[in-house]
Amino acid sequence: MQAGETGVANKVLLIEDDDATADFVARGLTEEGFVVDRAANGRDGLFHATDGSYDCIVLDRMLPGIDGMGVLGAVRAAGIETPVIVLSALGAADDRIHGLTNGADDYLTKPFAFVELLARIRLLIRRGGAAKAVETVLRCGDLEMDLLARRTKRAGKPIDLQPREFRLLEFMLRHVDQVVTRTMLLEGVWDYHFDPGTNVIDVHLSRLRKKVDEGFDRPLLHTVRGAGYRLGLDP
Amino acid sequence: MLRSATFRFAALVFLLQLVSAAALIVTIGTAVRRQLRTDAQRTVAVLRDDLRASYAAGGAAGVRREVTLRTRGLVTPGTVLLLIGRDGTWLGGNLDAWPPSVVRDGHATEVTLYRTGLNTAEPMHVEAVRLPGGERLLVGTIVAGEARAMRMLEQVSGVALPLALIFAALAAWIAARTIVARLEEPLAALNAVAAGDLAARVPADGSRDALATLGVAINGALERVETLMGELRMATDGLAHDLKSPLTRMRVVLERAAAQVREPAAVESLDRALAEGDRLFALVQTALSITRAEAGIGREHFVTIDLAAELAGLAEMYAPLAEDQGRTLSVESAGSCVAPVHRELLAQALGNIIDNSLKYGAGPITLTLCDGARETGREAGAQVEMAVADRGRGIPLARHEDALRRFGRLDDARQGGGAGLGLSLAAAVARLHGGALTLGDAAPGLRVAITLPRE
Predict the structure, then answer these.
(1) Which of the four CATH numbers 3.30.565.10, 1.10.150.20, 2.70.70.10, 1.20.140.10 does domain B302-453 have?
(2) Which ranges in chain A are annotated with CATH 1.10.10.10?
(3) Which of A17, A36, A99, B433 is the one with CA 20 to 30 A from B452?
(4) Domain A11-129 belongs to what topology?
(5) Rounded-to-integer distance, Cα B428 and Cα B312, Å
């Protein structure tokens, strides 16, 4: 499977000092079709990053030499806009806020699920790749959402959605055919970064699925085992 | 407290000022009186000695001549003289008769008498002298000056005392102001540190008085607090890092294994291992969050938000779960209510409480937002209370402490596999905000309330 939509493999720079983690992440990303370059410290990472040919940079927060935040600062100061995902063992919400205000595009706490990282990398690359025009109608198959009129229809039949369900479906429609994890939904739809316990997101998704898929032959909302959800035509 | 202490101090300064002014006036009065008396005594002594000398020179006739001479004109206007013979006959002077109150010879006293030809009695200092020939001589001087001086002093006091009153009040006010102003800086520094700004210090003003020393001592203590907090932060961060890196590796290994195996039993085992790993991680994360919240880390991220909207958002998030159990989740709030909070942690705290109710409670769940006055009896508007109540079995009063203890689980939760950190975290978050978490009886059911200050 190719990662790039155009058929050209996307390049990811992985700056991580923990060999084992870096190994697994690099192998996983390679298997998913990415070209991965690795750097084990801040200095090497910065050297590679300034090359500017990467589609995405995965940056560990705690690095020997220049610390992750320092690398990020230097990369942004050099005018390089490559999307950066910061990996951190510092999980507190405060550190996350700090990371995001310092120019990171996303922030993932360790231990993270590989699928989570993968989903987020894909999201960032797509966002960075296509500077989309402001869309007012989102579509997936016969599902259609009018953002201005706040109306949703499937095969011409209106679907009545609660405000939060609307935002949930909008989020899914903005990431058609991409794996969206529970944490991504929690952050994107509810703006929370903690584990709400129980299966809060699953319950919301199953309700949405009832409204969107019930009565139609072809389901659009799919559960991706061990990862999250995907909205798309393919099963 | 500082206000009343300052007021007491000011009152004391005022009183002392007033007393010292009064004491000054009284002392001056006494000194003036004593001086005037000494002057009178000296005048009388000189007069007496002169007359004795006259007697020695000219005998009774000489004294008589001298007395007449001295009382006739206005040579010495305040002079009082009376000479009587051995048999008590009037021989000369400006008194009509010997005053009955003056008995002993050589005794000086104060009397008020009429001088011959005058129709007002005058205070006078007199001394009786027995002359060698047996005649008695009364020598004295008018002391009206003393009374005049006293009257003047009274008049002066009438002006000076109100002035003293004003100055005393002014002094008290300045003293109180100075103290309050000098205490303001240490107070501000302590408040800032309590609010999370660990770098706040009392500015040094260069003086070496007690208040400056206090400032230095406070700074020393704050320095220590900051160092300890820094160490704690480093320790928790280090612990988090040391634990999370291996957990990440473990997770990646399991995940990749799960993606590679096809055998259903193996897949299931790996999924279980992943879930257990996640639970272990969540536990570490929560325990660290509690430690950090208890240490006051995170106050710098407080933002002022509408708690009513936040509660509504949480209710909306958890409502489907309640409905799936055939229960309801509703919000009761009296309009919007803003307060500075750590949004993420507060939401997590409330989420934990709601989650607990979903797991162990029963019946409708009600989220309420109200002024904290009812619970705490404090001034209305100073606090806000957010409560989660259900109609389940609740927790008996005797078990409340167990429920709040870290890793403390009640019997229900032991079966369910909770870690016993949910309520501990909620309580720690309440304390981080300077508030408190309380368990109450919803009769029937459990009512968990978080009270926060609105400032």
Answers:
(1) 3.30.565.10
(2) 137-231
(3) A99
(4) Rossmann fold (3.40.50)
(5) 23
Top CATH class, B2-148: alpha beta
Domain boundaries, chain B: 2-148, 210-294, 302-453
Chain B residues whose CB is inside 8 A of the A91 CB are: 240, 244, 285, 288
> Which spans in B304-439 are helix H?
307-324, 343-360, 373-376, 400-404, 411-416, 422-432
**pLDDT of A2 strictly over 50:** no
Question: How far is B232 from A183, CA to CA, in rounded Å?
Answer: 29
- Token representation of residue B180: 């309050």
Q: Which CATH topology does A137-231 take?
A: Arc Repressor Mutant, subunit A (1.10.10)
B220-271 tens-digit pLDDT: 998 998 888 888 777 777 777 677 777 877 887 888 788 788 888 988 888 8
Substitution target in B245, B325, B350, B388 with the highest count of A β-carbons within 10 Å is B245
pLDDT of residue B380: 55
Element of type H or E holding B107: none
Q: Average pLDDT over chain B, rounded to whole?
A: 83
Cβ-based contacts of A164 with chain B (< 8 Å):
316-317
Minimum distance, in Å, between the CA of residue B3 and any CA atom of chain A: 38
Residues in chain B closer than 8 A to A62 (CB atoms):
241
List the one residue out of A228, A108, A114, A111 whose CA is nearest residue B281: A111
Say yes or no: ipTM exceeds 0.85: no
Q: And the tokens for A189? A: 């739809």
Instruction: Give the pLDDT confidence of B312-361 residue by residue, as tens digits.
Output: 989 989 999 999 999 999 998 877 788 889 888 899 999 999 998 998 88
A227 shares contact with chain B (CB less than 8 Å): no
A111 contact residues in B (CB cutoff 8 A): 244, 247-248, 250-251, 277, 281
Cβ atoms A38, A58 nearer than 8 A: no
